[in-house]
Amino acid sequence: MNTTDFFNELWKQYTTKAPSAQKVKSLFEEEGNTVFNDHIAIRTFNDPRINIDVLSRVFIKMGYVSKGEYRFEAKKLYAKHFEHQEDPNAPKIFISQLLLEECSVQLQNIVKLLLDGVDQEVFLQDDLILKGRVWKTPSHATYTTLLEESEYAAWMYVNGFCSNHFTVDVNKLSSFDTLEQVNHFLKDNGFQMNTSGGEIKGSADQLLEQSSILADKIEFEFEEGKQNITSCYYEFAYRYPKQDGTLFTGFIANSADKIFESTDMLLQKS
Ligand code: OOG
Ligand code: NI
C-alpha cells in the first residue's frame, strides 16, 4: 500500500468513528478552504509486541524519522513524534504509549492476557494501525476497572489501533486567520470544545497553539450489551515561525497533556 492510500484508508476508518470530523471538514470546504492535515496520533501500550518501536516501523519504511520525545508523568505516558524526511507536506505522526510497569499489577495483567489472546502474527503486520481492536470483545466490567485507573487504558481497550485524531492545519485555511476564529466557528456550528487547560492550549511564545473538539460518542457492543464510549476527535493547530523563519514542527508536552483529555467521557456535557 502506498503512502497516499494508507492515509486515505486511515481517514476513512477515522471518520466512521468520528463523523464530526467529516462534518467539520465539509463546513470548512463550504467556506472555500482546502483542508490540510498537520498530524495524526496513535495510542498503544508499551508491551514489546505493540510498542512505539513496532507501530512506527511502517512510517519509517515510508520515509519518516523520529524527531522528538515527550513524557507525561501523571498519565504515565511516553510519546514520540515523527516527520517525513523529504516531504514537508506529509502529516507528522505522534505516537504515545502507556508505561505498563508504572501501572497497577491488575492493569498489567489485563493487558497481558488481552494481547496473549491474539494471533501474534497480527502484531507483525504493516497495516496493524488500520486494524482497530484486534483482541476479543471487551467486557464492560473490565472497561470500568481500567477507567478508574487510566482513561487512556480504557479508551485503548475498546478502540484499539487507529488514528485517534487528525489535525486541521489552521495556517493553511484561507477563510480564517487565527485559531480563535476557528474555535468561534466550531462553537457557532454546535461543536463542543475541549476546555481542559483552556480552549486554546499553548501560545505564540511556544510557537504552537492547539484546540480540539470533544471525541464523538458511539454505541459499543460489550460482552454484556450496548453502552456508549468515546471514540475519536478532531484537532486544530496553528504554528508560528522559528528564528530561522521556518514553522515550528514539534509538540508541546503541557498542551498535549490536555489534548489527550479530548476522549475523556467526564468532559462531555450531555
Ligand atoms: C494525543 C494527544 C496529544 C498533540 O497534538 O499534542 C496531541 C492523543 O490524544 O493520543 O495530539
Ligand atoms: Ni494532536
Automatic annotation (TrEMBL):
Cofactors (names): Fe(2+)
Enzyme class: oxidoreductase
InterPro entries named among the record's database cross-references: HGLS
Enzyme Commission code: 1.13.11.93
The entry's keywords: Dioxygenase, Iron, Oxidoreductase
GO molecular function, one term: dioxygenase activity
Pfam families documented for this protein: HGLS
Family recorded in the similarity comment: Belongs to the 2-oxoadipate dioxygenase/decarboxylase family.
Protein name according to UniProt: 2-oxoadipate dioxygenase/decarboxylase
Source species taxonomy: Bacteria, Pseudomonadati, Bacteroidota, Flavobacteriia, Flavobacteriales
